[in-house]
Amino acid sequence: MKVKKRSTFKLEDSISNRKCCPKCEEFKEWSGFGKNKSKSDGHESWCKTCVSIKKAEAYAKKKKELKKKTKDAPIYSSSIEGELSEDAILEFSEIFEEIYRGLHYEGKI
Fold it and tell me: What is the separation, in whole angstroms, between the first and last Cα of the chain?
């Protein structure tokens, strides 16, 4: 298990009314952070710039994985032409018709 080192910088600079982003470790104005009512200060932990970079990286990664999956996926034909002979189709339809009539006669359909 990795232990994350804690920085020694203050997260909030009360004198200049700024906040420090723990990702980029830069002090920015409060307007540089998204709002979040669940946080004690009412703003997100990461600045808007770091959040947008993280989202762009996640999007690129997901797009790359999806492209790889679709590239490796087998291509199936939507048509069954040529896979079944006419005799096999006729035999199947006769059997199906017998079953359907039997079920209809017994009142199950």
Answer: 63
Residue 31: DSSP 8-state? G
Element (H, E) at 95: helix 86-105
Residue with tokens 């069954």: 80
Domain ranges in the chain are: 12-57
Measured CA angle at 39 (ends 1, 62), to 5 deg: 55
With vertex at residue 69, the alpha carbon angle to CA 66 and CA 75, rounded to the nearest 5 degrees, is 125
Convert the pLDDT of each residue in 9-27 to its tens digit: 455 555 568 899 999 999 9
Residue with tokens 């002090």: 27
Segment 16-73, tens digit of pLDDT = 688 999 999 999 999 999 999 999 889 999 999 999 999 999 999 999 888 887 776 6
Residue 19: which of 38, 35, 6, 37 has the closest Cα? 35
CATH of domain 12-57: 3.30.60
